[in-house]
User: Which sequence fits this backbone?
């Protein structure tokens, strides 16, 4: 069906070009090039009404075949496109799964890191001796005695 419409479309295209070229323009067009006798071939009034009707019919057939071919082309499913769409869907699903696995792994690593930090903090608390000033509540804080020599005075300006 599509092949028949395509062949018809090609013939209509060439026929439309031929009919348009045979028409005389406002300044006589192609009719003058062949000697002016072309108007007697189609009758005493010339070819204008006949060629105008043929051009109109041919243009309508051309538009109909164009629209029909466009419709069939848009409705036709290409197996190659379907395979590509399936491949893209599989790749997208795989990428989403990989991303989910990566996020789960990162969450697991974060939890392990937090647990290790908490364990290290607890171990550090347990290693601090009880006699240190930080831990002893009743012990007096140790102070550094002042230096015996005062700083020299600054000269006036």
Assistant:
């Amino acid at each position: 069906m599509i092949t028949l419409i395509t062949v018809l479309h090609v013939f209509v295209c060439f026929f439309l070009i031929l009919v348009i070229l045979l028409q005389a323009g406002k300044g006589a067009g192609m009719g003058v090039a062949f000697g002016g006798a072309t108007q007697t071939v189609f009758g005493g009034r010339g070819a204008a009404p006949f060629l105008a009707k043929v051009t109109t019919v041919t243009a309508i057939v051309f538009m109909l075949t164009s629209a029909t071919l466009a419709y069939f082309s848009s409705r036709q499913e290409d197996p190659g496109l379907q395979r590509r769409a399936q491949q893209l869907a599989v790749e997208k699903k795989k990428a989403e799964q990989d991303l989910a696995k990566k996020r789960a792994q990162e969450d697991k690593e974060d939890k392990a890191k937090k647990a290790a930090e908490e364990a290290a903090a607890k171990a550090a608390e347990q290693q601090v001796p009880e006699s240190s000033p930080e831990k002893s509540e009743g012990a007096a804080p140790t102070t550094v005695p002042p230096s015996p020599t005062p700083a020299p005075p600054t000269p006036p300006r």
